[in-house]
């Protein structure tokens, strides 16, 4: 699915702003058909944003179930005879859309886009009523999973098995778009580096038309290669490569034939990615990942995308010396990947499959959740497969994305895990053979894990000195090194430590470097770094986390997770300066 853009044949109208909004704690709206008129007792809600923290009420913050959005939309008069679609960049976690009284689309999955074709219902020049119901419930059959408890007084309580708050709503942009009736539906590009030259392999999917020309242009607009078929290879002599720290982009221009021609321009970065032995290669050069697991999380906005926050976060990544991050634990807004493309930041792109491990979650949520493989079934696996396919379909053309992570911290110790994941790994490779596939492994010893051999890179989340051997960094260093060397012996693959860190409350210091202090956070990071430097197969370090973030309720979380090296409002802790000294050694 192509991103909306404006070209000589395409137009788009942004629908962001203030919408009418209503909570629906009793699920009355569907039964009473709220889409047929103005929403009852509506307030105003900004889009994009998570709805939870905006009204400043406990009811909104803790709401479980449906919420309703509505606004009026005028179709431009000049769009007569054109294809008209609504595009939602994200609706967490499932949505149904009506144009006036007609249902025009539905989607499950809170972090990938969907379109609703309203060509036959929207009249150019007239105003229509757009209504969306968004359901934030997580169940064992959803990705991510959860459990909804109904309390004796009728209220619902959501239990979920991940350590970040279940923000929901219309998190990303909403668009009204027009294309010709004959249009470019999709473009797939892969690139291949051959010495100083390169090849750009492309495939164009056109609805009711034919490709007239495909032109590859350099950043200055100069033509570098041309094709006239729907699929082919463009030879690019003396190519300028996309590489870490240098986000050089070409532009692939596609135009269809006929009086109702469509055109679309796709940014293209030429680079290749390979795993050889225990090395990760970008353009044939070994790459070492320095960076973070992050979250889309900010005060008030929650997971709502904001360009200001995005640009500032990238500025902090540059300041600290990071070259990469993982989209933990869901696909981020496409604007984030486009920015990474332009600036040469490397991305591990992750599905929303977090929390497939109820035993670990038992420490995070109240109650007694069932064992994961007793609750997860074929329906869950099908949802997981859709999440992988939609992630690849959306992000396959981003040069910044160098690897797919298909899950975070699943229970990978039981035979059921291998049975569940093996077809998903095959599906990920089939969807995109050009990138390695990984998952982030929870703190299990290598001899207990039953599925890491299926993947290209060993990604480990490790909390020695924090959750294990708390406060004892001598033991943590010894045990961590021994474990990493055992992973090398068993698999001989590259290792990225995709999470490591400790909670630190900003401003709490101690000469004894006690736990929860900024001093202990630094000492733990430095302990890990000594081990990384001694184990050659370690090819990456992603600190958990870039910034403090909101979590659900729990006695072990005071105002959220405090493992960030920046506070939630992006003030640096002492650990940020320690990382800058490691990652920017020549500047300090």
UniProtKB/TrEMBL annotation:
Gene3D superfamilies: Galactose-binding domain-like, Glycosidases, Immunoglobulins. This is Beta-glucuronidase. InterPro entries: Beta-gal/glucu_dom_sf, Galactose-bd-like_sf, GH, Glyco_hydro_2, Glyco_hydro_2_AS, Glyco_hydro_2_cat, Glyco_hydro_2_CS, Glyco_hydro_2_N. PROSITE patterns: GLYCOSYL_HYDROL_F2_1 (PS00719), GLYCOSYL_HYDROL_F2_2 (PS00608). The gene is uidA. It comes from the Bacteria. It comes from Actinoallomurus liliacearum. Residues 183-271 form the Glycoside hydrolase family 2 immunoglobulin-like beta-sandwich domain. Its EC number is 3.2.1.31. Residues 15-180 form the Glycosyl hydrolases family 2 sugar binding domain. Keywords: Glycosidase, Hydrolase. Belongs to the glycosyl hydrolase 2 family. The keyword Hydrolase applies. Pfam families: Glyco_hydro_2, Glyco_hydro_2_C, Glyco_hydro_2_N. Residues 273-584 form the Glycoside hydrolase family 2 catalytic domain. The keyword Hydrolase applies.
């Amino acid at each position: 699915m192509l991103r909306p853009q404006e070209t000589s044949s395409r137009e788009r109208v942004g629908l962001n702003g203030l919408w009418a909004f209503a909570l629906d704690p009793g699920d009355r709206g569907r039964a009473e058909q709220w889409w047929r008129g103005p929403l009852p007792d509506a307030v105003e809600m900004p889009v994009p944003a998570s709805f939870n923290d905006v009204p400043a009420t406990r009811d909104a913050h803790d709401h479980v179930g449906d919420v309703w959005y509505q606004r009026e939309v005028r179709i431009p008069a000049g769009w007569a005879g054109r294809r008209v679609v609504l595009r939602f960049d994200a609706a967490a976690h499932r949505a149904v859309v009506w144009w006036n009284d007609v249902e025009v689309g539905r989607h499950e999955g809170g972090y990938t886009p969907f379109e609703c074709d309203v060509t036959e219902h929207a009249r150019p020049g007239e105003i229509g009523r757009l209504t969306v119901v968004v359901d934030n419930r997580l169940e064992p059959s959803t990705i991510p999973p959860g459990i909804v408890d109904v309390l004796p007084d009728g209220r619902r309580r959501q239990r979920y098995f991940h350590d970040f708050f279940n923000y929901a709503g219309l998190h990303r942009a909403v668009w009204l778009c027009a294309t010709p009736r004959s249009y470019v539906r999709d473009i797939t590009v892969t690139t291949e580096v051959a010495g100083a030259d390169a090849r750009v392999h492309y495939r164009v999917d056109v609805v009711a038309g034919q490709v007239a020309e495909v032109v590859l242009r350099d950043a200055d607009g100069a033509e570098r290669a041309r094709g006239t078929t729907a699929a082919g290879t463009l030879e690019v002599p003396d190519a300028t490569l996309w590489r870490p720290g240098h986000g050089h982009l070409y532009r692939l221009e596609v135009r269809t034939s006929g009086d109702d021609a469509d055109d679309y321009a796709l940014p293209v970065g030429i680079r290749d990615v390979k795993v050889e032995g225990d090395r990760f290669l970008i353009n044939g050069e070994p790459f070492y990942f320095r960076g973070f697991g992050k979250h889309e999380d900010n005060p008030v906005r929650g997971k709502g995308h904001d360009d200001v926050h995005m640009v500032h976060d990238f500025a902090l990544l540059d300041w600290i010396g990071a070259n990469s991050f993982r989209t933990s634990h869901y696909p981020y807004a496409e604007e984030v990947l486009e920015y990474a493309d332009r600036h040469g930041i490397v991305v591990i792109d992750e599905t929303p499959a977090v929390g497939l491990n109820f035993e670990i979650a038992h420490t995070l949520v109240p109650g007694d959740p069932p064992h994961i493989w007793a609750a997860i079934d074929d329906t869950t696996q099908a949802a997981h497969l859709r999440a992988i396919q939609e992630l690849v379909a959306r992000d396959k053309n981003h040069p910044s994305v160098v690897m797919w992570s298909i899950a975070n911290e699943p229970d990978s110790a039981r035979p059921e895990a291998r049975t569940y994941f093996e077809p998903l790994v095959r599906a990920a490779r089939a969807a995109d053979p050009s990138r390695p596939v990984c998952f982030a492994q929870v703190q299990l010893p290598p001899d207990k894990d039953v599925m890491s051999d299926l993947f290209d890179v060993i990604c480990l989340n490790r909390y020695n000195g924090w959750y294990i051997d708390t406060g004892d960094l001598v033991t943590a260093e010894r045990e961590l090194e021994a474990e990493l060397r055992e992973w090398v012996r068993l698999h001989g693959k590259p290792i990225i430590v995709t999470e490591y860190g400790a909670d630190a409350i900003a401003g709490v210091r101690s000469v004894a470097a006690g736990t929860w202090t900024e001093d202990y956070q630094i000492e733990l990071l430095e302990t890990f770094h000594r081990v990384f430097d001694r184990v050659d197969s370690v090819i990456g370090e992603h600190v958990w986390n870039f910034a403090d973030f909101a979590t659900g309720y729990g006695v072990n979380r005071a105002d959220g997770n405090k493992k960030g090296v920046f506070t939630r409002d992006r003030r640096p802790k002492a650990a940020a300066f320690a990382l800058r000294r490691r990652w920017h050694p020549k500047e300090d």
